[in-house]
Amino acid sequence: MRSRVLCGIAAVVALLVTGCGSAGGAKSGDAGTGTASAPAGGTAAAAAFPVKAADCAGKETVFDAAPKKIVTSNASSLETLLRLGAGARVIGTGFPPGKGTLPVDLADAGAKVPVLGDMVIPKEKLLGSGADLYVDTFGEMGGMGGMGVTPTDQEYQAAGIKRVFLHSTACAAMAPAAVQDLTGVEADIKSLGQVTGTSAKADALVSDMEKKVGAVKTALAGVAADQRPGYFFFDFDAGTKQPMAVGNRQVANAVITLAGARNVFGDLDGDFKPVSWEDVVARNPDWIQLGVRSRGSEAENKKAYDEAEKFLREFPATRGIKAVQDGRFLRVGSEVTTIAGIRNADTVRQIAAAIHPDLVKGAQ
Q: At 129, is the secondary structure helix, strand, or coil?
């Protein structure tokens, strides 16, 4: 499986998840012996447990009670936990949110979470963290690939750490068909809500996402398939020597489709695939999203977007692309486009408002 952490800062990721391993933590029936209680930072009803969560291969882990100490793999899943009201239980994160990345109302809480790894969390730190739950957004290779040795199932179990996989990202390459909506992301949020004992909040978050996306779908109902502009997600952080395309199993494919565009690499089965600049030129996108991972400040983000746009305008192979000639560039963050999270719905609306301004207005 190939999931994605955003290469270079993202290059470790666009190629990062090429396999989705079996879940760590306890096997079905091996969960802890505690009973559900009301942990700090969230509520959990005893009747809600036991809860089962499966890995990419379908192997189940049983939770008899809500976790008390959580480590998460990246900023997106950290944001989800904060929104669920489980933030007080998060004791560490990898790929931490840069300054200004989290919404204002979550920024202070997010800044208090210890950073266990600027990118992926080193094996020793993860196993020694004292966590009883690891939220794995990227899968076995995505979480550790190229950055150290991945803990084995036995090591996770010995450390008392169970895992919850966010399937829509961690298991993307294994999806049986093209992903064209956010139901997988929403299912992940609900699953995380069940495991953490915050199902009511998870349901509310998903309902809000559905309303946002539903409004866009209604606004674009009259846009025929042949009227959808071609759209290319330019993963600038993956490097410019060889572009990395998002395929039809990636979350970004769903975001692009829902926003009323056509992923020019939507015929590629899988989540990520290296392509050539000749391939990009041949598909001649109408719009290009400058895929940049947060640099930690508005000024640094602007600098990165400027550099990405400058490359496309000056690189001989891309200067003739319609989107480049027309200056149709979107400056929308990589994380909220390619990694499963609550704000995928906002990204749908943001892209739709840019490419269909007469139909979709008021994007935040």
A: coil
User: Residue 200: is it exposed, middle or buried by C-beta count within 10 angstroms (0-12/13-18/19+)?
Assistant: middle
Query: pTM for this structure?
Result: 0.84
Measure the CA–CA gap between 6 and 175, rounded to whole angstroms. Answer: 20
How large is the C-alpha radius of gyration of the chain?
Answer: 20
Would residue 310 count as lying in a domain?
A: yes
- 318: tokens are 């891309």
Which band of pLDDT confidence, cut at 50, 70 and 90, is reported for residue 36? Answer: very low
| 3-class DSSP assignment, residue 71 | strand
Q: Are residues 213 and 336 in the same domain?
A: yes
Give which of 231, 205, 230 is closest to 290, Cα–Cα: 231
φ and ψ at residue 244, rounded to 5 degrees? -110, 120
pLDDT confidence of 40, banded at 50, 70, 90? very low
For residue 137, the number of C-alpha atoms closer than 13 Å in the C-beta half-sphere is 29
CATH number for 121? 3.40.50.1980
Asked if 337 and 271 touch (Cβ cutoff 8 Å), the reply is no
Please give the residue range of the domain that contains residue 232: 209-355
Other beta carbons within 10 Å of 359 = 16
**53 neighbors 195 (Cβ within 8 angstroms):** yes
Q: How many CB atoms lie within 10 A of CB 309?
A: 18
∠ CA 26-29-31 to the nearest 5 degrees? 50
Residues 121 and 233 in one domain: no
> Nearest 5°: CA angle at 261, between 216 and 210?
30
Total of domains in the chain: 2
